Amino acid sequence: MTNRLANAFAFLHAFVRTRWGLRFRSREALLAYQQRQLRRFSSKVLPKSDFYRRYANQALASMPVVTKRDMLNQFDAFNTAGITLDDARELALRAETERNFRSTLPGGVTIGLSSGTSGDPNVFLASTRERHVWAGIMLARILTGPMLRRVLNPFSPRVRVAFFLRANSNLYETVDGMRVGFRFFDLIASMAVHLSALADFAPDILIAPPSVLHRLADLQRSSSLFLRPAQVISVAEVLEPDDRTAIEQVWDVSVIQIYQCTEGFLGYTCGAGSLHLNEEFLHIEPAWVDHAGGRFESIITDFTRKTQLFVRFRMDDVLQIAPTPCTCGRHSLRLAAIEGRRDDVLWLSAKCGNSLIPIFPDQLRRAMLVVQEQFNDYRIEQRTWGLLIRLHTQGDLPKIGQSVRRELERLWSTLQVQSPALSFDKLEVKDSADKRRRIRGLERSTPCNHSPDSISEISS
Prior knowledge:
Largest sheet: 12 strands, mixed
Organism: Pandoraea horticolens
GO molecular function: ligase activity
Distance between the termini: 47 Å
Oligomer: single chain
Protein name: Phenylacetate--CoA ligase
Radius of gyration: 22 Å
Keywords: Ligase
């Protein structure tokens, strides 16, 4: 009973603090709050980790920038529970194989695997208390006013949440029972298997990758499904403009985004419709890949997690910062876009000189959007010889390919790069649990100019 009360308190405290507290008068006040939290974290949490013990009570800038490979190589040193990578992977892989995600390691530590879209799957750990804190923060961020009133009213039906993803987790299941009915729909299974159960469940909140939401919207448009969600939430993949349009047209609601990954709960859509980084719980340093365009890879420090430590952890997502503050009044960073992975960036030769010019996913998406009424979906893969472009269409592929070629030539000209060789092929789209990645570049290291203060300068 004591543990249940402690977990309930952790949830409520996180919910109330996130929903109604943590308001800052200025960007400077938010950054000052972060520094206080980082000092506390450095003195109280870092000494419990074998890797970070030597850095306790030191300034963040004195600590090394680490990568997923560093963490996997010294996994037990990066967590405070003494859990080895072999033990964590054994449990996580058994859960993946058996499709039973409820098991935990001693101490109630939940284990999960990332999808591995950028190499070896990362492993995440979360204690029971951390799961309840996460649930409180997450619900505080995503529930609209009407949904919150239903949760708080014991005489109203529970809010029903349908969640589509490749794998479930105790982390996600934590929200179930708190006046919220949570149901997981496994993307490993065919979509047809889920349709009847989904319609019967009649979710108030529908959470899925955007490619899945688009598919469900198409099914509703063809009268094969009928849902009336009050909220639609995009997770796990980049939300493309065509996905957003199709989803919002069918359900007449604004799609919101949750930026959640192994490294933590990184971002959310606010009431004004902007995507914010979750800086009340994270410290973000930019590794710039395109300073002029506001594009960077984030180096994160999560000062709330105590089991698995992410301290100056270098991620490979390319984010684009919005240059102006949000009208919602929050002073956390506002993103213009989550561009995709580092290896979603294409590199083409400059027209003048021997340099390579990065072509960012959002630039390609905008070009493809101009001609996308001629096809339903696409993939662009950079090869050593040029670009392979696959189109999902019932139309004349050579003719449509010429339209795509003309639009891309305009982009190459604008960016002053040499035109690569293009090859076109048909794309077969199938239901899949794999994350959709429309654009893939060659494997290469992205150059960057790391400047810890640059984000503050842009946002002030």
